[in-house]
Amino acid sequence: MIHWFTTVFSQPAQKAQLFSIVLSAFVAFSVLLLNQWFTSRRARKDHMINKIEEFYEAIGEYEKCAFELFNTMFAQSKDSSQFQEVLDRLQTAVQRVEMYVGLHFPEINFDSKAHTKLMQTAYYNLSYAKANRSGYGNNDSIHKMDSVNQLLDKVRENTSHIKKDAQALMKRHKH
Fold first, then answer.
1. How confident is the model over 92-123, as pLDDT tens digits?
2. Where would you find the membrane-spanning parts of this chain (predicted)?
3. Residue 108: domain span
4. Within a domain: residue 154?
5. Which among 70, 63, 94 has a CA at the least distance from the CA of 156?
6. Does some domain include residue 65?
7. Is residue 8 situated within a structural domain?
8. Helix axes of 80-103 and 112-131: crossing angle, nearest 10 degrees
9. Is the pTM here over 0.85, yes or no?
10. Structure letter (DSSP) for residue 1
11. Residue 33: inside a domain
12. Where does residue 174 fall: left (phi above 0), alpha (psi -120 to 50 degrees), or beta otherwise?
């Protein structure tokens, strides 16, 4: 085989032709690999941007459901199905945020147990306030309203922390 190779490419013109063939093949292969690298990099970036958008929407849904839960608790309605529906949506939103953090953004610190505990505390405080709703002039009721306002501030603080982390991801992965 080597003998055949040396006889076929014995002339300088044939050696130049072989060199140009090898060089062309190398350049074509390099262009193919670079194109594949750029394409996969862009696809990864687009995928990450899509996941960041979905993550940010999940944070917004969590925040919306948390405030809706507080609103539902203060509603005069005796129907608990609406409250349960909001609570279920809130739990789903927390699970979605937790899923995105676990699967795509492990660098973000999100403790779902703290959020669940916050919602439980809110539920107990709001239930107590609703049971004692007979007079808003009552000092105990005012104290509970302050407690509720603190819980609302805690929800805002939690979501703003997660949103800042999501915005940092947006800046890092933008086009």
1. 998 999 999 999 988 888 877 777 777 777 77
2. 18-38
3. 47-173
4. yes
5. 63
6. yes
7. no
8. 160
9. no
10. -
11. no
12. beta
